[in-house]
Specification:
By secondary structure, the protein is α/β, with parallel strands linked by helices. The protein has a single domain (about 1-170), classed as Ribonuclease H-like superfamily/Ribonuclease H (Nucleotidyltransferase, domain 5, 2-Layer Sandwich). The protein is built from nine helices and five strands; from the N terminus they run βββαααβαβααααα. It is elongated, with a radius of gyration of 29 Å. The chain starts with a strand and ends in a 9-residue tail after the last helix.
């Protein structure tokens, strides 16, 4: 099962007000586990950054002007996502921005299944804090690198949180893969194990003889 963990950073809170994506990151999952394939880009929003948003993610105008606009990365982004389900925390926010960027380019919105980890967390832990930070603390996931928001780091954290939300770390025990790897190894490559032989004790021999003596017409004497 292929899924894409997605996160964005933006110039503000509402694409309807002209806010734009400034960073987008995606991590590919297979059976809920990262494959190592990542899509990550900083994006020139073609507008000024708000002071409030810059305080959240630390991405300023001078830095972002050195990067390509969303139009230059849209095809690569869509190819990476393809038909996979998208996993996001408060998915309506990130997908709202992504679809607004696609609409500006005359492209159709993403038509994929969506998994919202915020909704899952609220159902599993009703009344408890369900922010990404709170869930990382709940599952003892290291937050020390998260001094500011980062789409790439947040994707990495969310992938770990998602694994916990859908069943915990036992999902990482991919027994099918382990069995296939073991079957694929040549017998000569496998470590030899010496046979384990045990001699019966005198008491065990005596007990066995007493048991045999009680048997009537054992088949080996027929």
């Amino acid at each position: 099962m292929r899924e894409i963990v997605l996160d964005t950073e933006t110039t503000g809170l509402d694409p309807a007000d002209g806010d734009r994506i400034v960073e987008i990151a995606c991590i590919e999952l297979h059976n809920h586990l990262p494959t190592g394939k990542v899509f990550h880009r900083y994006v020139n929003p073609e507008r000024e950054m708000s002071a409030a948003a810059e305080a959240v993610h630390g991405l300023g105008d001078d830095f972002l002007k050195r990067h390509a606009p969303f139009a230059a990365i849209a095809t690569e982004f869509l190819d990476f996502v393809a038909e996979a389900a998208v996993v996001a925390h408060n998915a309506s926010f990130d997908l709202g921005f992504v679809n607004a960027e696609l609409k500006r380019l005359g492209l159709a919105p993403l038509a994929v299944a969506v998994v919202d980890t915020l909704e899952i967390a609220r159902k599993r832990f009703p009344g408890a804090p369900a922010s990404l930070d709170a869930l990382c603390r709940r599952f003892a996931i290291d937050l020390s690198a998260r001094d500011k928001h980062s789409a790439k780091l947040d994707c990495e954290l969310l992938a770990q949180v998602y694994l916990e939300l859908v069943g915990g770390r036992q999902s990482a025990l991919d027994l099918g893969t382990l069995a296939a790897n073991a079957a694929g190894r040549a017998a000569a490559d496998r470590p030899a194990r010496p046979p384990r032989l045990f001699e019966p004790s005198a008491d065990e021999l005596a007990s066995h003889a007493a048991l045999v003596a009680k048997l009537k017409a054992p088949i080996w004497q027929a």
